[in-house]
Design a protein that fits this description.
Blueprint (H helix, E strand, L loop, with lengths): L12 H13 L3 E2 H4 L5 H6 L4 E4 L25 H12 L3 E6 L10 H14 L4 E5 L7 H9 L4 E3 L9 H4 L5 H13 L3 E8 L5 H13 L4 E6 L16 H13 L4 E4 L9 H4 L2
Parallel strand pairs: 2-3, 3-4, 4-5, 5-6, 6-7, 7-8
Antiparallel strand pairs: 1-2
Bound molecules: iron/sulfur cluster (SF4).
Length: about 280
């Protein structure tokens, strides 16, 4: 098996355990932990985290994702307030709110996103909020509700190229996801999206996706190396060379993206708090 070392800075673990302790005490979930993010040490050390709302069980079965699948529990009405209190307690200047996909709910948990943003605005008005949303099955009223809450950045990941959707994220729809991003941009928000590399795509497909995103008005892009959470997940097809990530970044900026983070360890919310500067 080809071993590839993704170099990461050494960090002092005390912040990591401190933040984990706070998250446990407040019964909050993070995508950082549930998606086995390689940057968790660095981000927690910097006091940033991506909160995972609406439970830990997802209604979809994306083949690359380590989040558990199953029949979700009902929403916890206190969760938005607990997140706001934790954001305030941690003094976060930038908070990322994401969720599992709740196709079981009439609004896809859009109302829970809105309530979480409202609670954060009330408790920590200085904190900028980025939402990383599911596609809400393309429901206009759900997408409009989240947009109306005016997140600082509206993020929705395309994850991969359209040719691979049937095998990598079978319940998703490429054009539906592009539509979610376009709607956010048309309503004046900063729109962001993310891709994984190494699932079997080729460079021209990635550049085509970049063009589609730019046509949808997308401003920011993240591209990172896919790492299989386990042997049962979709196999890594390629460990993409750093010079290709560099080429993607240059192409993205040439195409007009305001910001592109492209490197093996980049993830949707990685350095999100400084990438808009
Ligand atoms: S919809 Fe999101 S959380 Fe659910 S399996 Fe897919 S990537 Fe994971």
């Amino acid at each position: 098996m080809l071993m590839v070392l993704i170099r990461k800075k050494k960090i002092n673990l005390s912040h990591l355990s401190e933040l984990k302790k706070i998250l446990r005490e407040t019964q909050l979930n993070t995508v950082c932990e549930d998606a086995l993010c390689p940057n968790i040490g660095e981000c927690f050390h910097r006091g940033t985290a991506a909160f995972l709302i609406a439970g830990k069980l997802c209604t979809r079965k994306c083949r690359f994702c380590s989040i558990k699948k199953g029949v979700p529990l009902s929403l916890d009405p206190q969760e938005p307030q607990r997140i706001a209190e934790t954001v305030k307690k941690l003094g976060l200047k930038y908070a990322v709110i994401t969720s599992v996909t709740r196709d079981d709910l009439p609004d896809g948990a859009a109302g829970h996103f809105v309530k979480t943003m409202e609670c954060i605005v009330n408790m920590a008005p200085e904190t900028k909020v980025e939402v990383l949303v599911p596609d809400f099955m393309g429901r206009k009223e759900s997408i409009d509700a989240v947009i109306a809450a005016k997140p600082f950045v509206f993020n929705h990941n395309l994850e991969t190229v359209p040719r691979l959707y049937p095998v990598v994220r079978p319940e998703a729809d490429y054009l539906r996801s592009l539509g979610v991003i376009e709607t956010a941009k048309k309503n004046g928000l900063t729109a962001k999206s993310g891709l994984m590399a190494g699932l079997g795509e080729n460079e021209s497909e990635v550049i085509q996706v970049m063009n589609d995103l730019r046509n949808a008005g997308c401003d920011m892009l993240t591209i990172g190396q896919y790492l299989a959470p386990s042997r049962k997940h979709y196999k890594v097809r390629e460990y993409v060379k750093e010079e290709i990530f560099d080429r993607y970044k240059k192409t993205a900026i040439d195409l007009g993206f305001k910001h592109c983070a492209s490197a093996p360890y980049v993830r949707s919310s990685y350095m999100a708090d400084i990438s808009h500067l």
